[in-house]
Every structure is written in structure tokens, then in C-alpha cells.
Amino acid sequence: MSDSFSLSVVVPVWMEAAGVVQTLEALQLLRASGHEVIVVDAGSTDGTAALARPYADRVVQAEKGRAVQMNAGASVARGRVLLFLHADTRLPPGALSSLEQFFQSDRVWGRFDVRLSGQGVMLRMIGGFMNQRSRLTGICTGDQALFVCREVFEALGGFENIPLMEDVEFSRRLCLVSRPFRIKDPVITDSRRWEQRGVWRTIFLMWRLRWRYWRGESPERLVHSYRSDVRNAKD
Fold this sequence. Notes:
alpha/beta; Spore Coat Polysaccharide Biosynthesis Protein SpsA, Chain A; single chain; globular; 2 domains
């Protein structure tokens, strides 16, 4: 296999018609440079897949669930590096150069720093805390655009098929192989869900779920609590 750098960006989506074109438009320079974008749709009924097709190299259908969708995208990827990008997250302008540096390093996986899109002080602090946590523990979440060498991804069996915490679980296994490569130039993640649910409410929910996960509760129980909290927030 060639030692040249090549990238596959895997974007899991579900009911993203309102924003999928904007997300994928931001990735067209990568495609123009010879890299690929793979969209994995989970049976959206709002036309997400059709909107995505002109802006992606492949649109794959999979069962709903980020772990399942990301594994499905990785299974058809051709790139030497896999980057998993949430539909509400934007890469920084220098991402491609930074990822090439990663590929030439002795690390096998990594993540970006993150910044939330809103302008409030609390939102900036949240991004800072997330980055500091990752620097201390090596653990990252999907909002930080995890990337990994494809050979390592395949050797580890990809994401575990669980409904929540798949990013945390996978980064824990990756830490056994190497420390993450950190890209300081941050991805920008939409702060809408934080603002809609309430910043403090969302902080407490996320930390509570992670604490329960570390104590050994199953992701199936945790996702039930997560969905219940989201429903209550909308009432």
C-alpha cells in the first residue's frame, strides 16, 4: 500500500436536510484535493440523502446509531486516515495540512481542539474544559472530530456497537496504542443544542452520564436517561 497521505471523512447523518448541504459544502476543497467524503444516512425521510449526493463521493445507508453508521462508512473508505465528523461540526481551514502532519508522526490517532459556535462566555469555557479534559486523559468525544489510521481502526474492530459513549469507549482503546495527536486549531461545533436545552442543564447531564458510564452502567440504560432528559427539556 502507498505511503502517501489520503483522507476519508465519514459524516453520519439522520434527518439533516436543513443543514447537510452547508456541512458538505465546507468539505469540497478536500474533495478537490483528491480526498473523499462519505455520508452515512440512517434512513432519513426528509431528503437528507438526496441533498447529500452531489457533495459526497458516496452516500451509504445504515441502521440508525452513530457507531453503526461510522463503521459502515469506514468499511467502504479508501483513505489511509479516517476522520469522523458530526454533521454540526466544521473543520478549521488548515485541517488538511495538520492531518498530513499527523500522518507523518508516530501517533496513530488524534483529535482536534473544539470551540462552540456561540459567543457567550459560558460556551467558550465549556470548549476550554473539553479541551483540557482531553489533554489530561487522552479521551475525546465525537464533537472533537476523532481521526485514526485506517489499519489501526480495522485492527481494533472499529466502534463498539453501543447506543451512547461509542466515542469515549473507542478513544479509551486507542489510548492503549498511542497518545492522541492534538490539533490545536479548533473545529467549530454548533452550540444550538446547548442553548436550546440550557447550558447548565446540558453540562450536568453530560457529566452525570459520563460518571455513570465510568461506574459501569450500560450504554443502553444511559441512552434511556439521555432521551428522557431531552424530552423533558422540550416540554
